[in-house]
């Protein structure tokens, strides 16, 4: 197995109509009883609990970190989320707040969300987050350069950031809402993986549409092809727009039937979401107690 | 670099879907079903009944009357009477109202019809719920719209109805085929004697109940059950003006012989062995999806199934690997479970035939691959099956299997694949997968098939004509073309 860099103009073509049909098939899977419970817990455990706002403060971040470790203590036997995702300036706060837990700290970097800055600044941004203790870096690609066809520029930039990450895992955000076609999504996925991404991620959450199932399916298939070619596993993170348990289960069905059980852990699959966790807790409470509780019973952080 | 293991996926590994069976408690089935003649359910003259079973449980569902020649004669008389006294004279827009009403009643009872279709025929509830029943209703809606517009469909040609249509339908899409046959016949002003297949009569009998409830004048539609002999009696009845048959090529040939020398009009929709052709510039993952829909839809019991796969050599290995992965995610089992992808084989007889071909393929030296799925202990089931490295001379390539068995061949050039695709007695359908529009149009002109899908497969719509070339039959069903076989000009 070798990892020669391919010509990215030759990435496989994608037929949008068939992709949507396949997604519709995933969505007709009926997930009930034990498999629902198992799926909900897994989904909760895959969440990157996120706050990416201009008004973020250490107080807000600390409260969210507690929620990350204790999603709902009154319900026994539920897992923590996978990570919290914050701006670089809040990494230290989050790292301290999460001390002693398995919850990771992910930080957006590289002039998030537009990515419109110089490589020097992006590298500094990345190093700052890593030095403050970030376990994972969520970078954005330069969509303008990508859409002008400067694939080498995009590739080199990702490779440079990867180097700056050191031991931190690199998630590469394609911002698929700005890429316009599934052909472009596939091409950008290939570029990111060959350039050294550990994860590929759909969106910043700042652009609509954010994560969609068709886009995620195309990325999962790209991951599968890369795995068969190189033997290297790449993680996947749909982000933004996934707010219901039902939708999260549909994503899990898609992962299970496209990549299989190796990817069904938070090491290889994440949900970038803020409100999904509470909806899952609501559903888990319903499964445990038989009735739906008012949302006032579930903490908002 | 340390030597890595070959990459291998563990699809559907650690997260099994709990059973999600569709409820069938609300279904009411009679113990015995009589013949629907002249608007009433009447006992067969000889008093003979036969069992109809569920192929997934092998349990008896009901007893169904067996019509003999006398019963057929009564049904044709009822249809003739209704034609002469009411249906022929009724203003077309009044006829349309009845057809619209039947369409709406199918929609209202769609859940019941879907459940019975899956119980009696073995197809997964996902398909009967999402495809068969909605399409059946759509056919009635579509042709109801044409009823009072026939002069616009064929301007200046004075279209006239024929009289009594004898219609014989197969077991693979029992309700849908009944709709394909009845809707255009009624819209064009004909009356009907319809015989469903002996293994799957229940939804047609439920349709008879709907028709009775709709107030359609007595005798306009008669539905009688029985075996091949009953069908032959319909075909040979001198008072039948039109024969429409969907089923096997062998029976189609018999029908054609027996009506020779009469002035009966005929439509035959027979077997197929469609080529599904994938070029190296195709969107591969989506082509794989189309291949799966092409051959494993309805357990492969589809006359237009894409049962011969042609893959351009450059992408063969990758495509086959992806196809095998995809097949591993197919759930074979209880048709009533909402997660089932591939249901039960329709009958013991058909399962034996499929298994015979699987044995044959092995003996012919093709490489077999069967998906890694669990199988129910009871009922008639068959694993989704591939035969790789098949040759044009293999019988599994030349003959219609009518099951979930796909023969895979590779090709090098466009000329080669066109020659091989056409080198078959059938010509019902074909599929072409490529990113290039010009290539699609080049292929569609040269493939001898009635229906050609490009970058998709097994798509049906009432507005689109369907039918074959060569031994796949003649005449078109669906669309404006589907009116013609029921009219004289």
Mind telling me the CATH class of chain A? Alpha Beta
Largest interface: A-B, 35 and 34 residues
Q: In the CATH hierarchy, what is the architecture of the largest domain in chain B at level 2?
A: 3-Layer(aba) Sandwich
What structural class is derived from the secondary structure elements of chain A? alpha/beta
Q: Distance N terminus to C terminus of chain A?
A: 46 Å
Strand arrangement across the biggest beta sheet of chain A: 7-6-5-4-3-2-1-8
Q: Could you list the spans of chain B in which at least 5 consecutive residues all have pLDDT below 50?
A: none
Kindly describe this structure.
The complex is a heterodimer of chains A (301) and B (489). By secondary structure, chain A is α/β, with parallel strands linked by helices. Chain A has one domain: Alpha-Beta Barrel (TIM Barrel). Chain A is built from 11 helices and 8 strands. Chain A has helices at 16-27, 33-45, 58-69, 91-97, 119-131, 143-147, 151-165, 182-195, 213-230, 245-258, 276-289; strands at 47-50, 83-86, 104-108, 136-140, 169-173, 199-201, 235-237, 271-273. Chain A has an 8-stranded parallel sheet with strand order 7-6-5-4-3-2-1-8. In chain A, strand 3 (104-108), helix 5 (119-131) and strand 4 form a beta-alpha-beta unit. In chain A, helix 9 runs parallel beside helix 10 (245-258). In chain A, 52% of the residues are buried. Chain B has 489 residues and is α/β, with parallel strands linked by helices. Chain B folds into 2 domains: 32-270 and 472-488, Aldehyde Dehydrogenase, Chain A, domain 1, CATH 3.40.605.10; 275-461, Aldehyde Dehydrogenase, Chain A, domain 2 (3-Layer(aba) Sandwich). In chain B, the strands form 6 sheets. A 7-stranded mixed sheet of chain B has the order 14-15-16-13-12-18-19, sandwiched between helices. Chain B has a 6-stranded mixed sheet with strand order 9-8-7-10-11-21, sandwiched between helices. Chain B has a 3-stranded mixed sheet with strand order 1-5-4, with no helix packed on it. Chain B has 15 helices and 22 strands. In chain B, helix 2 crosses helix 7 (202-214) and helix 3 packs across helix 4 (125-146). Chain B has helices spanning 69-87, 92-108, 110-121, 125-146, 150-153, 174-187, 202-214, 228-236, 249-259, 284-296, 316-328, 348-364, 395-398, 414-422, 437-446; strands at residues 32-33, 35-37, 40-42, 49-53, 60-65, 160-161, 164-168, 191-195, 221-223, 242-246, 265-269, 275-278, 308-312, 367-370, 385-388, 405-411, 426-427, 429-433, 451-454, 469-470, 473-474, 487-488. The A-B interface holds A 1, 12-15, 17-19, 21-22, 28-36, 38-39, 42, 221, 224, 227-228, 231, 252, 256-257, 259-262, 264 and B 4-7, 9-20, 126, 130, 281-286, 289-290, 321, 325, 329, 338-339, 435, 455-456.
């Amino acid at each position: 197995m070798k990892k020669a860099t391919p010509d990215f103009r030759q990435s496989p073509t994608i037929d949008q109509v068939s992709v949507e049909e396949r997604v519709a098939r995933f969505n007709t899977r009926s997930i009930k009883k034990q498999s629902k419970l198992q799926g909900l817990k897994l989904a909760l455990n895959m969440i990157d609990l996120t706050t990416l706002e201009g008004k973020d403060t250490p107080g807000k971040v600390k409260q969210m970190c507690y929620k990350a470790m204790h999603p709902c203590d009154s319900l026994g036997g539920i897992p923590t989320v996978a990570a919290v995702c914050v701006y670089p300036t809040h990494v230290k706060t989050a790292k301290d707040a999460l001390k002693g837990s398995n919850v990771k700290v992910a930080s957006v970097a590289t002039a998030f969300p537009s990515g419109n800055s110089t490589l020097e600044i992006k590298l500094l941004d990345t190093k700052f987050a890593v030095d403050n203790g970030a376990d994972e870096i969520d970078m954005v690609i330069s969509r303008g350069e990508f859409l002008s066809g400067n694939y080498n520029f995009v590739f080199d930039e990702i490779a440079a950031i990867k180097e700056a990450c050191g031991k931190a895992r690199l998630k590469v955000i394609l911002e698929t809402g700005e890429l316009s076609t599934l052909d472009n999504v596939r091409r950008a996925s290939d570029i990111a993986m060959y350039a050294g991404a550990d994860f590929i991620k759909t969106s910043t959450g700042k652009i609509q549409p954010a994560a969609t199932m068709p886009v995620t399916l195309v990325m999962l298939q790209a991951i599968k092809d890369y795995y068969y070619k190189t033997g290297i596993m790449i993680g996947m993170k749909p982000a933004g727009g996934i707010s219901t348990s039902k939708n999260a289960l549909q994503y899990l069905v898609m992962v299970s039937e496209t990549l299989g059980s190796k990817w069904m852990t938070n090491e290889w699959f994440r949900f970038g979401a803020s409100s999904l966790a509470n909806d899952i807790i609501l559903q888990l409470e319903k499964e445990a107690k038989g009735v739906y509780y008012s949302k006032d019973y579930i903490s908002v952080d | 670099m340390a030597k890595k293991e070959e990459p291998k996926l563990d699809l559907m590994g650690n997260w099994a879907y709990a059973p999600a069976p569709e409820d069938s408690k609300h279904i009411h089935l009679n113990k015995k079903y009589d013949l629907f003649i002249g608007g009433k359910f009447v006992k067969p003259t000889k008093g003979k009944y036969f069992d109809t079973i569920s192929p997934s449980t092998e349990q008896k569902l009901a007893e169904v009357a067996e019509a003999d020649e006398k019963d057929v004669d009564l049904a044709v008389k009822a249809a003739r009477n209704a034609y002469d006294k009411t249906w022929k004279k009724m203003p077309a827009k009044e006829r349309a109202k009845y057809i619209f009403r039947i369409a709406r009643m199918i929609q209202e009872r769609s859940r019941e019809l879907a459940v019975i279709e899956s119980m009696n025929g073995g197809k997964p509830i996902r398909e009967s719920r999402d495809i068969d029943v909605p399409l059946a209703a759509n056919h009635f809606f579509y042709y109801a719209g044409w009823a009072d517009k026939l002069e616009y469909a064929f301007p200046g040609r004075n279209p006239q109805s024929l009289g009594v249509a004898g219609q014989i339908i197969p077991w693979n899409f029992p309700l849908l085929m009944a709709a394909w046959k009845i809707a255009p016949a009624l819209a064009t002003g004909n009356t009907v004697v319809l015989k469903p297949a002996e293994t799957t009569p229940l939804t047609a009998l439920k349709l008879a109940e709907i028709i009775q409830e709709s107030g359609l004048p007595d005798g306009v539609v008669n539905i009688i059950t029985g075996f091949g002999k009953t069908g032959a009696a319909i075909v040979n009845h001198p008072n039948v003006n039109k024969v429409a048959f969907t089923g096997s090529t062998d029976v189609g040939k018999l029908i054609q012989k027996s009506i020779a020398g009469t002035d009966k009009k005929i439509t035959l929709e027979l077997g197929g062995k469609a080529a599904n052709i994938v070029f190296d510039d195709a969107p591969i993952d989506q082509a794989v999806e189309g291949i799966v829909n092409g051959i494993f839809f309805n357990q492969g019991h589809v006359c237009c199934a894409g049962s011969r796969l042609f893959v351009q050599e450059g992408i063969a290995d990758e495509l086959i690997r992806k196809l095998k992965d995809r097949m591993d995610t197919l759930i074979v089992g209880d048709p009533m479970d909402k997660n089932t992808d591939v249901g039960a084989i329709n009958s013991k007889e058909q399962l034996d035939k499929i298994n015979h071909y699987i044995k044959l393929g092995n003996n012919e030296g093709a490489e077999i691959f069967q998906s890694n799925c669990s199988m129910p202990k009871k009922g008639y089931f068959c694993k989704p099956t591939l035969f790789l490295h098949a040759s044009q001379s293999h019988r599994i390539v030349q003959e219609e299997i009518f099951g979930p068995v796909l023969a895979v061949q590779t090709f090098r050039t466009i000329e080669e694949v066109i020659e091989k695709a056409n080198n078959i007695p059938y010509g019902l359908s074909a599929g072409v997968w490529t990113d290039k529009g010009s290539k699609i149009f080049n292929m569609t002109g040269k493939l001898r098939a009635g229906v050609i899908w490009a970058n998709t497969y097994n798509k049906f719509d009432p507005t689109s004509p369907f039918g074959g070339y060569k031994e796949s039959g003649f005449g078109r069903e669906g669309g404006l073309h589907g009116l013609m076989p029921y009219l004289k000009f």
